[in-house]
From TrEMBL:
Species whose genome carries this gene: Catellatospora coxensis
Record's compositionally biased regions (Acidic residues): 167-177
InterPro entries: DoxX-like_oxidoreductase, Methylamine_util_MauE
Identification of the protein by name: Methylamine utilisation protein MauE domain-containing protein
Keyword Ligase carried by entry: no
Keywords for this protein: Membrane, Transmembrane, Transmembrane helix
Region (Disordered): 164-189
A Pfam family per the record: MauE
PANTHER family: INNER MEMBRANE PROTEIN YPHA-RELATED (PTHR33452:SF1), OXIDOREDUCTASE CATD-RELATED (PTHR33452)
Sequence intervals crossing the membrane: 12-34, 54-75, 82-102, 130-149
Location of the Methylamine utilisation protein MauE domain: 12-145
UniProt-listed GO biological process terms: methylamine metabolic process
Annotated localization: Membrane
Length: 189
């Protein structure tokens, strides 16, 4: 008889859905920006938080960071680290959008677009963007707490937490039992 609770059986599947959802978000966001790094730099500069040169550097690096985080999440590799990076980016995005709103800036956030100044007469609607990013932050926090998920490289490499915490043996054993050809498990210290 299976001694695990309903949650312990469902959690790896829920984590899979959250992990893939967050991966898609970062892959799309980074993919849309990587084709025009200068425009992304201008979008970062529109927030008026840092110097123009710093904004251009951040704008050039940001899409690649988003893509790398998205790929890590997609593969389920270093899931907890990727979730921490996701959470950090979401906090920065929420702070940036909130700052723009509080200072009365008339900009497009640039999250899934080229961003920058809005044309005259167009009013930004920051609240839905903040709520969206809070939801993405909640997804990242969920993965920080529950990084073990189905179909992840972390589980295959016997290191689902990748941040020094013990692995969920039930998930790993169940996945290894479902595979016909598995390598012997390494002993943990």
């Amino acid at each position: 008889m299976d001694e695990r609770t309903g949650w312990s059986r469902a959690q790896p599947w829920v984590s899979l859905v959250v992990r893939l959802g967050l991966a898609g978000i970062f892959l799309v966001a980074g993919g849309l920006k990587v084709t025009d790094l200068a425009a992304n730099g201008r979008a970062v500069n529109a927030y008026q938080i840092m110097s123009y040169d710093a904004a251009m550097v951040v704008g050039a690096i940001q899409p690649f960071v988003e893509i790398v985080v998205g790929l890590l999440l997609l593969l389920g590799l270093a899931t907890r680290l990727a979730a921490w990076l996701s959470a950090g980016m979401m906090v920065a995005f929420i702070a940036g959008i909130s700052s723009a709103w509080a200072r009365g800036l008339n900009i497009d956030c640039g999250c899934f677009s080229k961003g920058g100044q809005l044309p005259p007469g167009v009013t930004p609607n920051y609240l839905p963007e903040i709520f969206r990013d809070v939801a993405f932050l909640a997804m990242a926090i969920f993965l920080i707490i529950y990084p073990v998920s189905r179909f992840s490289l972390d589980a295959r490499l016997d290191r689902p937490f990748s941040a020094g915490l013990p692995a969920d043996d039930d998930v790993l054993e169940e996945e290894s039992e479902s595979s016909e050809h598995t390598a012997p498990r390494r002993e943990r210290a």
